[in-house]
Amino acid sequence: MTFRNFRRKALNNVMLSITGVFAFITVSALFLILAYLVYNGGKSVDLDFFTQLPKSTGEVGGGMANAIVGSAAIVGFAALIGLPIGFFTGVYLAEWGNATFSFLVRYMADLLNGVPSVVIGIFTWTVIVRPTHTASGIAGGIALSLMLIPIMAKNTEQFLRDVPRSLREGALALGAPKWQTIATVVVPAARKGIMTGAILGIARIAGESAPLLFTSLNNQFWSNPLHEPTASLPVMIYSHAIAPFDDWHRQAWAAGLVLLVLVLAANIAARWIMSRGQTAARG
Amino acid sequence: MNLSSDFTVPEPAAHPPASPSAGSAEAKLRAKGVNFYYGSFKALHDISLDFPANQVTALIGPSGCGKSTFLRSLNRINETLGNTRIEGEITLDGEDVLKMDVTSLRRRVGMVFQRPNPFPKTIFENVAYGVRVNGLAKRSEMADVVEKSLRGAALWDEVRDKLNTSALALSGGQQQRLCIARGLAVDPEVLLLDEPCSALDPIATAKIEDLLVELRKQCTIVIVTHNMQQAARVADYTGFFLLGRLIEHDRTDIIFRNPSKKETEDYITGRFG
Lengths: 283, 273
Hints:
Chain A is mainly α. Chain A contains 12 helices and no strands. In chain A, helix 5 (117-132) packs across helix 6 (137-161) and helix 11 packs antiparallel against helix 12. Chain B has a single domain, classed as P-loop containing nucleotide triphosphate hydrolases (Rossmann fold, 3-Layer(aba) Sandwich), CATH 3.40.50.300. The interface between A and B is medium-sized, with 21 and 28 residues.
């Protein structure tokens, strides 16, 4: 073996080791977070957590039933607003947009995607909460929808673009107008991808706390999310974690675990839908 | 590729055409002086070609010669690519194709593509699709239309028991016949086929060729093909394209036995292409 060959092999091994080490660091960081959360949260979560309201400051026990329902309501509002707007924006970008305007819309979507979530919270507070003097679940939903729209739009555009041109031509060649081709062939062909993206987008915003801090605030009691401050899991985690009571810390861990499990379930559901789609396509 | 050593001139179509020469008065579809541009690239140069009613016309020529572009301008599907331009005149029964409402044009001029492109729907829904979007049949008549179309495409016996299963589960040859059935369901006057057998095995190809000979009873057929034997087997007329120009157009037996242009002879005897 020549020196050259030896050097090549050695360099190859070094590079392989470096990438391996960093991959290991990535995985172990994720694993540690997960393990820590499962360990602490697992100890803390109990039936009361799902059925009881939070106790008064400093008292032991209680749960976060209102925050679980509140989170569901806020994320539900966000989905109702954000998914359709994002979807139709994505359809426009993929199917109709002329070069200049599409570029502008796509660029704006990217920018919106990059706006820090706390800024989105302040913005929503400025334009919704302050003029109406009402912090509510709806205001929180609007804030979260601002994060969901660009995710949904980009994702819809991507999956529509992946639909082969031959399918569109097949429908157009039969005399279908463009809108009908899109509605009856292109979108159904991309349906599974779009649905998966919607679920992942919802999972992504469900864990956000910053947009809700100024918009839906928090609540120790049941509230009407339409016009009252509404509790949510992420904000509960925040408020409980910074409080000086051990039992509140315990509750925060429990909330963290519940949130994680919900997000994980959404991810698994999304993957499951996607894999079913691929099987059908292979047919 | 050089086939000259083992290439035999294929036998021309066994069914002599009804009219003695190309460009007879009963042209169903007629192109006159057609130029086509992709952006600034001129893909077609002054193409004039008549397609006689209820006859099969084959367009042959090497890759990139413009035969597909020409075919795809006959139902104006090419203009959906954007940044294209067409000049000249195309008429369907004397009506100006380029000014016609494009959806009704495409209803009358059907198309089958190079690769089978069934919709990811059931077999039934695939065939019913064109009928639905054009509002051509009542809900109660749909089953009859679907059966008739599938019979027309010689596919009925193979799929009659699984009309509600996914079209994607069919074989490639079956999918292509499904696409033909889908086209037939809207009762087109002209059927354009863009290398319909290039993705199929010889048995599936033979089935489709038999079908085309049968189908010319109900519509005028234009087929683009790379396969010269196929042109010889199915076509009444053949047009030879080279570098965006129509070099020669005549009855298939004349094109294959006694072409008048040297380029045509070189191509069909396998000296190039």
